[in-house]
Amino acid sequence: MRLKRRDFLAATAALAAFPGNTLAAKAPAFHKDFLWGASTSAYQIEGALDADGRGPSVWDTFTAQGHIQDGSTAAQACQHYTRYREDVALMKAAHFNAYRFSIAWPRVQPQGTGPANAKGLDFYDRLVDELLRAGIRPLACLYHWDMPQALQDQGGWQSRAMTGPFADYARAVAARLGDRVKDWMMLNEPNVVAIFGHGLREHAPGLGLGEMGVLRALHHQNLAQGAALRAIRAEHGDCRLGTVTSVQPCRPETSSDADRAAAIRWDAVWNRVAVDGLLRGAVPDVLAERMAPIIQPGDLAAIRFPIDLLGLNYYSPNTMRHAPGQMFEVGWGRAPTDRFTAMGWPVQPDGLYEVLMEFKNLYGNPATFVAENGAAYDDALSADGQVHDPERIRYLADHIAEVRRALADGANVTGYLAWSLLDNFEWAFGLSKRFGLVRVDYDSQKRIPKDSYRWFADFIQKARQS
Ligand code: FCB
Fold first, then answer.
1. Which end of the chain is less enclosed by CB atoms within 10 A, N or C?
2. How far apart are the first and last CA of the chain?
3. What is this structure's pTM?
4. What's the chain's average pLDDT?
5. Whole-number Å distance between alpha carbons of 385 and 409
6. pLDDT at 29
7. Which secondary-structure segment (H or E) carries 417?
8. What is the average pLDDT across 283-287?
9. Ligand 1, atom nearest to 426 Cα
């Protein structure tokens, strides 16, 4: 659907009555140091896959195997590798004070181990300097899914042997950037990697190993993360350390006992193995028996770490039903809403409040930040050369309103980063799903700020002033 300018104006007028948009009129809710910005990941935006000695990653292999739905590749993506200055300027113009990006392991260690490739690190060096010049705090994430293929060939996350290489890699990156980067995130969504890349075949490396494949990948990422946290802590005492995980409330589709049990099982797999491992050194009860064979003495202590900052990615709750024959005997049910994004994901902002309050009430209120939140819609370029995306504005406003509600109720939320700055390579969906605040014309590489970009910029400015 193409939206005309007048439709947009009508939609934004309607939005003025929406809770998230009355922010400026209300008492201050966001601390002046609250982090506002966006997140991206290396593979999804950088392009330049052969530049400066980068090695192949599992996503290059998965793409070459023909798994990308629209047949596209990340070879160009947003060409951020060469256009990063323009992208940082866009962040600055939107009043961002924070930006989470990821470092590509295959640029730093093309074969996954061995001495660091200085040229690969040079890129992040330039990017960090550019961010600091723009007054934007760099939050670096060490692993956003692009495992070096050479390590995958040795078993990848199915193997305990990744722990040492990941800690070495973390040490090498922090040695180069730790004088300027003061926030380090270890992993992005170990649960999504484990479920979709190891249990199922929807993401790289596409192993399809089922339940034990998921649990091994989760446990081994937890172990690698624990080792990397300790490696950086040992040498960079002044850094804030953490990780990023996807947390989505798991709600039963119906009130039947079977659906409720399914939701509890899925909650254990999706949320608890990562979170309880890190924060409590614990394994969820419903998985204890199945995980016992892969947990060795000392593992849980090695996984637990007193992090400084926890990044939470939230898109929607998981509505689950009992599904015999499927992995963990769960299946996705129909969410009780008629709002869906172009990914088919339900829009249920109250789930974000639930998640934030859960960390306050059940985990001792650690410092958290929303590390990803946003929506893909079928944006089109209008005749006036602009992208009018009122649905994305509404999505963001609704979710920020829930952050504000959680803050008012005492949750220790310290930032909100939208996913994403730019339209980008959305994994197995390729270039077909647009999540950006800024449209990217992939042929010309022109950046076209959407209405949501202007809305967000304005919102941040008002939030700071209030
Ligand atoms: C998250 C990923 C991110 C992006 C968004 C839409 O699961 O962390 O890379 O794909 O979903």
1. N
2. 36
3. 0.94
4. 95
5. 42
6. 84
7. strand 413-419
8. 98
9. 10
Q: What is residue 5's predicted lDDT score, i.e. its pLDDT?
A: 41
Distance of alpha carbon 274 from alpha carbon 312, whole angstroms: 12
Tokens of 205: 């490396």
Adjacent-strand bridge partners of 251: 319
Pocket test for ligand 1, best of 68, 185, 427, 435 (most atoms within 8 A of CB): 427
Residue 28 is predicted with a pLDDT of 56
Q: Indicate if ligand 1 lies below 6 Å from the C-beta of 188.
A: yes
* Closest ligand 1 atom to Cα of 44: 9
- CB count within 10 Å of CB 305 equals 23
Question: What's the pLDDT at 465?
Answer: 85
Q: How far apart are CA 278 and CA 218, in angstroms?
A: 12
What pLDDT score was predicted for residue 9? Answer: 39
**DSSP-H helix ranges across 134-248:** 149-152, 163-177, 190-192, 210-235
| Mean pLDDT computed over 182-192 | 98
The tokens of 60 are what? 């290059």
Q: What is the pLDDT of residues 121-153, one digit of tens each?
A: 999 999 999 999 999 999 999 999 999 999 999
What is the Cα 311 distance to its own chain's centre?
A: 8
Supply the Cα-derived Rg of the chain in whole angstroms: 21
Of 457, 415, 458, the residue nearest 94 (C-alpha): 457
Average pLDDT, stretch 332-339?
97
**Ligand 1 pocket test, candidate residues 146, 186, 372, most atoms within 8 A of CB:** 372
pLDDT band at 55, cuts 50/70/90?
Answer: very high
CATH code that applies to domain 32-379+410-446: 3.20.20.80
d(CA 111, CA 426): 25
| Residues involved in catalysis | 189, 372
Each residue's pLDDT tens digit, 205-233:
999 999 999 999 999 999 999 999 999 99
Residue with tokens 């926890």: 310
Question: CB atoms < 10 A from the CB of 285, how many?
Answer: 10
> E strand or H helix at 407, and its extent?
helix 390-408
pLDDT above 80: residue 338:
yes
Ligand 1 centre distance from Cα of residue 192 (Å): 9
Instruction: Check pocket membership of 419 for ligand 1, CB cut-off 6 A.
Output: yes
Tell me the domain boundaries of the chain: 32-379+410-446
Beta-sheet pairing, 240-246 with 183-188: parallel
Q: Which residue has the tokens 């692009």?
A: 146
Q: At what angle do helices 118-133 and 163-177 cross, to 10 degrees?
A: 50
Mean pLDDT of 434-457: 98
Can you tell me the distance from the alpha carbon of 63 to that of 362, in angstroms, rounded to the nearest whole number? 40
Q: How many A from CA of 256 to the centre of ligand 1?
A: 31
> What pLDDT band is residue 15 in, cutting at 50, 70 and 90?
very low
Strands 438-441 and 446-449: antiparallel
